């Protein structure tokens, strides 16, 4: 199979992206398989392309605020302090 032009790839992406976003998980897999076979793109790259809208923005993602109730927050702080305020910096944090 010959190489597709960039314009053809973009046109195919715009058509399939709408279908992809509205499809179920099984249908998304089939659409992705077709898109990868036609374009030759890596599967992960194809997934990222199909998830985005025409401006390249991810569609449908929600920003979730992590809000805890006072009781939950106090319990987490208590556990954190009991663990000697462990953090993600590892041994470097112990040098302070």
Structural topology:
Blueprint: H1 6-22, H2 25-39, H3 43-51, H4 70-82
Question: What structural keywords apply?
Answer:
4 helices, about 100 residues, about 0% strand, single chain, mainly alpha
Categorize the overall geometry. elongated
Oligomer: single chain
Specify Rg, calculated over alpha carbons: 22 Å
Helical/strand content category: mainly alpha
Contiguous low-pLDDT stretches (5 residues minimum) are none
- Summarize the helix and strand pattern as letters: HHHH
Structure notes:
The chain has a domain at 6-51. Helix 1 (6-22) packs antiparallel against helix 2 (25-39) and helix 2 (25-39) crosses helix 3 (43-51). The radius of gyration is 22 Å and the shape is elongated. The mean pLDDT is 81. It has helices at residues 6-22, 25-39, 43-51, 70-82. With 96 residues, it is an all-alpha fold.
Brief rundown of the structure:
The protein is an all-alpha fold and 96 residues long. It has helices spanning 6-22, 25-39, 43-51, 70-82.
């Amino acid at each position: 199979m010959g190489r597709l032009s960039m314009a053809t790839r973009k046109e195919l992406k715009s058509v399939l992206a709408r279908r992809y976003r509205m499809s179920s998980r099984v249908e998304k897999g089939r659409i992705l398989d077709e898109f990868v076979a036609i374009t030759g793109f890596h599967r992960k790259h194809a997934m990222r392309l199909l998830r985005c809208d025409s401006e390249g923005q991810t569609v449908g993602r929600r920003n979730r605020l992590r809000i805890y109730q006072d009781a939950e927050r106090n319990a987490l702080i208590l556990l954190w302090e009991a663990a000697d305020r462990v953090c993600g910096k590892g041994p470097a944090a112990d040098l302070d």
